[in-house]
Amino acid sequence: MPTRCSKRFVADPADAGGKPVTGDDVGLTQASPDLTEPQLDRWAQLLADGEVEFPDDLPAGQAERLLALVRRRRRNRLVTLIARQIARQIGRDVGP
């Protein structure tokens, strides 16, 4: 379930010890006004996975960039899912 989060992401989600990662688990802090690209990528992964909610205190430019990253991840997942389903269907239609 998503965790409400309005803090900045600074820690590596891999440090969460194998449990589900939420915004509170990964060391969020309000230390920096600007997120780096690796931080935006980690946020995008957490958001695309539904682990945290979209942060409401990002500057407009970063919010747009983060939204684009999340959309791209979700779109890629959907395309992959559809491609796999089509491949399975083709495999069934051809048969042995």
Quick tags:
2 strands; 96 residues; 49% helix; mainly alpha; two-stranded antiparallel ribbon; rod-shaped; 2 helices
Give the topology, please:
Elements: E1 8-9, E2 28-29, H1 37-48, H2 60-94
Antiparallel strand pairs: 1-2
Helix pairs in contact: 1-2
Task: Describe what this molecule looks like in 3D.
Residues 6-32 have low confidence and may be disordered. With 96 residues, the chain is mainly α. α1 packs across α2 (60-94). A two-stranded antiparallel ribbon has the order 1-2. The chain contains two helices and two strands, in the order ββαα.
Largest sheet: 2 strands, antiparallel
Estimate what percentage of residues fall within beta strands.
under 5%
What class, by secondary structure content? mainly alpha
Shape: rod-shaped
Task: Order the strands across the largest sheet as they lie in space.
Answer: 1-2
Please mark out the parts with pLDDT under 50 across 5 or more consecutive residues, or reply none. Answer: 6-32
Number of separate strands = 2
Distance between the termini: 43 Å
Question: Number of DSSP helices?
Answer: 2
Proportion of helical residues = 40-55%
Q: What series of H and E elements makes up the topology?
A: EEHH
As a whole number of angstroms, the C-alpha radius of gyration is 17 Å
Average pLDDT value? 77
